Amino acid sequence: MTAQDPQIARAGRSLGEPIVLIEGVEKTFGDNHVLKNVSLTVRQGEVVVICGRSGSGKSTLLRCIDHLETIDGGTIRAAGHLMGMREKNGKRVPLKDSEVAKQQRDLGMVFQSFNLFPHISVIDNITLGPVRIQKRPKSEARDEARALLARVGLPDKENAYPRQLSGGQQQRVAIARALAMKPKVMLFDEPTSALDPEMISEVLDVMVDLSRQGMTMIVVTHEMGFARAAADRVILMHDGSIVEEADPETFFTAPKSEHTRLFLSKIL
Ligand code: ADP
Ligand code: MG
Fold first, then answer.
1. Is ligand 1 within 6 A of the CB of residue 31?
2. pTM assigned to the model
3. Which of 66, 74, 119, 243 is deepest in the core (most CB within 10 A)?
4. Each residue of 60-90: pLDDT tens digit?
């Protein structure tokens, strides 16, 4: 199976209730208005691909969903949490950092630059969160880590150190590490853009498999093969706004926005 097989991942997958609800989100950095009234609903099991040129606000949106940034307006509900807030007597109260960290555990994030801990082995990278944060028994966490390593195609790498792995292998470990926390939603921020071309498909194939197994995923990527193979919806962000939102077929063949046509003419 390769990420280039169109339609396959979507076949037979049914979508559930909304699990990420983004409403009227605003974000500014100084006088740079980075997210402008962004609204987006993602249903359980859905795969949404976000694309758009550099600086359009894609990473900021993902970081706001994961509460790595605070928002200046609007609301984000993800995996059952009103991110960063608690409702008390009809009012919204900001959460303490420890409570925010608890909310973040339901969201798995994979970054462009892998971010593995260099000084510990692959299996320790994967079990660190489950053991230290979730307080799960070490033997159980290690068994699960081995199963995850098999799932990402690296069954023989548990004792390797990150520097001994290729970029594609490190990114697959990073995906396994995120999955070890049993997230309800996975967020990917350009997971293949730091990789050599020959390693891109090994990472995308893992992501396509994940989508087939019903994981809810929001993926910032310009890999249009992945979008065609796995996305239920493709979104184009332009200058802090969502300007196109369509199923992959429509997005690629009959986009409404001039921005999408221009974007596609540059990347295809
Ligand atoms: P994209 O991921 O689409 O390339 P980003 O979300 O990274 O876009 O950036 C959107 C805008 O926000 C850019 O103008 C960027 O310079 C700005 N920006 C992003 N993060 C920060 C930050 N931490 N501080 C100040 N400006 C930022
Ligand atoms: Mg970015």
1. no
2. 0.93
3. 66
4. 999 999 999 999 999 999 998 888 777 788 8
